[in-house]
Amino acid sequence: MNKMILATALVCSSATVAMAGGYVAPVIESEPVVVAPAAAGWSGFYGGIQLGSAELSMEAIEDTGRHYGLHVGYLRDYGRLVAGAELSYDKLDDYDAIEIGREGAEGDVIRAKLLAGYDAGRFLPYAAVSYAQVTLEGGSESWNDNGFGLGLGAKFAATPRLMLGVEWMTNAFEYDCPQLEDSFDLDLSTISISASYRF
């Protein structure tokens, strides 16, 4: 009986020693989980520059020139819906086929726009309506008119402050030609790329 107790004690003692000085599993520290900050949304004022091509078409005459200018605007983020307003000024030039006073036309256009878009994170596709005033000059003569228009575009939040954009917009006007004593439909269509600073 004593031998049995002694043997049992030796086995338990050996197991305890083995466990105390045996294999210990290494502690693996997990990498910290970095959570991307939530998007700040599209709400706020912005201003910037735009440039691109501008097509004037009147009856069977079409001429493509260029435009460049400035814009300011404000967007309000309602969740998935983003709405806003924008005011832009563009210089129009490099037209030879469209004549004012028998000379190639140049001029400018001022547009007031209302925008409605979809908040897709850093992308904002939108539709727009606009009311524009266009002025064309040639030689000593000039002509101006007001007209409504439609457009499509998209904005991209490159950084929290920098916003890039692309837009197509068209406006319809009525050109009164004194030489022919008649009026004609004149359409102005622009394709623009833009860069804006968000305040």
UniProtKB/TrEMBL annotation:
Residues 36-199 form the Outer membrane protein beta-barrel domain. Keywords: Signal. Residues 1-20 form the signal peptide. Gene3D superfamilies: 2.40.160.20. The keyword Signal applies. This is Porin family protein. It comes from Paracoccus solventivorans. The lineage of its organism: Bacteria, Pseudomonadati, Pseudomonadota, Alphaproteobacteria, Rhodobacterales.
